Amino acid sequence: MKKSRSFLKWAGGKYPLVNEIREYLPRGECLIEPFVGAGSVFLNTDYDEYVLADINSDLINLYNIVKQRTDQVVQDSRELFTDEYNQEPVYYQLRTEFNQSRDPYRRALLFLYLNRHCYNGLCRYNLSGEFNVPFGRYKKPYFPETELYCFAEKAKRATFFCENYEQTMMKGRKRSRCFIAILLMHLCQQRLILRLIIPIASTSTISNGWHYWLKMSLKVLVCRY
Prior knowledge:
Elements: H1 18-24, E1 30-33, H2 40-43, E2 49-54, H3 57-68, H4 70-78, H5 88-100, H6 104-117, H7 145-154, E3 158-162, H8 165-169, E4 176-182, H9 187-201, E5 210-215, E6 218-224
Parallel strand pairs: 1-2, 1-4, 2-3
Antiparallel strand pairs: 4-6, 5-6
Helix pairs in contact: 3-4, 3-6, 3-7, 4-7, 5-6
């Protein structure tokens, strides 16, 4: 299976480890991913249905907009990937607009622009909830048109949720698989997740329990419902 890239740059993305992750994902009808991030696992697996979630509302809003209005997103966002908009003063103007905007569609376009023009593709907010990553100074930021269409086509099988992992993990049903990659996560956060899954794994809805692997510094939890 040829690997597909996300249309987003994403710190801690799972794309380099997709082949290893696929080795451990069992067959099933639905894949549940509480920490979808850039969506590399989603894009590189073949389940009938996906339940994808993240706590970042801007990320989930963008995914839903791309899914529902693909052609319009490609057309409108392409205009932001020109030399005119690849300038530091313009970047900061658009970053301010993003932080002040309450329009979901405009916010989605600007989130994509910021992701591709900011430093290292980071996603970071200050205590006031404002995106605050500086300008990336790239010669010609890549416009991911092909990746946007690829994502939109695959997203026909997906439902996106903005919620915490506890809520997402409860969405499992028979023949679902729940995947969690714990990358660069603080030890106390890992323990929190493990504490959460112990009572879930003891319920009658889960037939085969939880499996835990460590490979290439990747910690993977897979649940079979």
